[in-house]
Design a protein that fits this description.
binds zinc ion; globular; TIM Barrel; binds N-(aminocarbonyl)-beta-alanine; 13 helices; nine-stranded mixed β-sheet; 2 domains; about 450 residues; 19 strands; Urease, subunit C, domain 1
């Protein structure tokens, strides 16, 4: 099968020019002006942006969490991602405390194999570090192509590890060429604020927000940076939300430390005023919570300063029925929200169209940096000869409205209900196969492939 994409505006993290793209089988084999190759399929991309398929390195599919499971599985989640121009996701395997990393890996393989439509890889969440885990970490890097290790500084009793375990993990991961990533919030502080609010009878979603003030994230981000600096390990802070945490990263750079930062689309666009309503605020109960307008400004600035490297989603959807688990107690609302489908279009609409970021920066944030940081570049994350033919074609002028009535995520509410977006992903190609066309998904469960990742350079 060959595909010729004609007359488009090709955008990568470093270039931005009119060109045609030629695909043979699963790879890009030519990029240039006026290509005249014969092709099985010709797509006219006149007036459209032709970009690498998006990479969302922070999603939770079919994840057991807070007494339930996130409502998108590998089929519905990767399909929704494709509709929004994201061709590869990195999901989180959760080690069960007291159990092995390999058992957790097998559990996630059962969730994904034969079910994923889009491509995927795994981060391994280490929730219980000991000598046995240390040996398995080495095997994950050397044999399984899993080179990033997620840690939680919160969710005590379920996912959190202590600082001693963190430092030991960093030493092993550094030695073998991996990356430690972190949910950086101070779990003990948060747990005590939750308990205080519960005791005072403060049960509404607003108290989820009030139990996780900015300082809990700023403190943990600084502590994580210090532990990385001490061990020399490579590190990445997931879902960074606020000015205080960003300033902790900024301080680390003053001692010439390199530290990678991800924010998520919701922290750039939504703010904590959404919690000032009754139970409806549960739609945005996530951790860390949405912040203030001044934090959005800090994050946009951080993007252009090169401090924020990736825009992900932390897609962890629940249905409205699942959210009712916390009707009488904010601490029981499953944390997370649906976003996997909207990240690329929202970042284009609010970032590029509103003049906050350039087109190449948009590609860097939505695809290229994740591929580079997590050992998939240049197979993924760019349009180049020899790269996987993962392509999103976006109409930059097409307006559309986001709604639960039309989205493809397996949730019955939208975090962006009624929001108008300028820019629509119309055609998506995954490894040379047309995945999305005329608002239909043309690929079946099982098409999605596990991406074995390289060591982090
Ligand atoms: O609220 C969130 N973020 N849910 C998913 C788990 C996590 O902390 O990333
Ligand atoms: Zn988290
Ligand atoms: Zn997450």
């Amino acid at each position: 099968m060959s595909v010729l994409i004609k007359n488009g505006h090709v955008v990568t993290a470093s270039e931005n020019y009119p060109a045609d793209v030629y695909i043979e089988e699963d790879k890009i084999t030519a990029i240039g002006a006026n290509l005249s190759y014969k092709a099985d399929k010709v797509i006219d991309a006149g007036g459209k942006v032709v970009m690498p398929g998006g990479i969302d390195p922070h999603v939770h599919l079919d994840m057991p969490f807070m007494g339930t499971f996130s409502s998108d599985d590998y089929t519905t989640g990767t399909r929704a991602a494709l509709f929004g121009g994201t061709t590869t996701v990195i999901d989180f395997i959760l080690q069960t405390q007291g159990d092995s990393l390999y058992n957790a890996l097998r559990t996630w393989q059962k969730k994904s194999e034969g079910k994923a439509i889009g491509d995927y890889s795994y981060h391994m969440a280490v929730t219980d570090f000991n000598d046995k885990t240390a040996a398995e970490v080495v095997d994950m890097i050397e044999k399984e192509g899993i080179t990033s290790f997620k840690t939680f500084m919160a969710y005590k009793g379920a996912l959190m590890i202590d600082d001693g375990q963190m430092v030991q993990l960093m030493k092993v991961v550094k030695k073998h060429g991996g990356m430690v990533t972190v949910h950086a919030t101070n779990g003990d502080m948060i747990d005590s604020l939750i308990a205080k609010n519960q005791a005072a009878g403060n049960r509404a979603p607003l108290y989820h927000y009030l139990s996780q003030p900015e300082v809990t994230e700023a403190e943990a981000s600084a502590r994580f940076s210090d532990m990385l600096h001490y061990t020399g390990c490579k590190g990445y802070i997931v879902h960074l939300t606020c000015e205080g945490a960003l300033n902790a990263v900024r301080s680390a750079t003053q001692r010439n430390q390199t530290l990678h930062v991800e924010t998520c689309i919701q922290y750039l666009l939504l703010d904590a005023s959404l919690y000032e309503q009754d139970f409806d605020g549960a739609k945005w109960v996530m951790s860390p919570p949405l912040r203030e307008k001044k934090d959005q400004a800090a994050l946009w600035a951080g993007i252009n300063q090169g401090l924020v490297n990736v825009v992900a989603t932390d897609h962890c959807p629940f249905t409205w029925t699942q959210k009712q688990m916390g009707k009488d107690d904010f601490a029981k609302i499953p944390n997370g929200h649906p976003a996997i489908e909207h990240r690329v279009e929202l970042l284009f609409s609010e970032g590029v169209n509103k003049g906050r970021i350039s087109l190449p920066k948009f590609v860097e944030l939505s695809a290229t940096n994740a591929a580079k940081l997590f050992g998939m570049y240049p197979q993924k994350g760019t349009l180049a000869i020899g790269s996987d033919a993962d392509v999103a074609i976006l109409d930059p002028n097409k307006k559309h409205v986001l709604s639960a009535k039309t989205h493809h995520m397996n949730t019955d509410y939208s975090a962006y209900e009624g929001r108008e977006v300028t820019g629509k992903v119309e055609t998506v190609i995954l490894r040379g196969a047309v995945a999305i066309e005329n608002e239909k998904c043309l690929l079946e469960p099982g098409f999605g492939k596990f991406i074995h990742r390289n060591k982090v350079s």
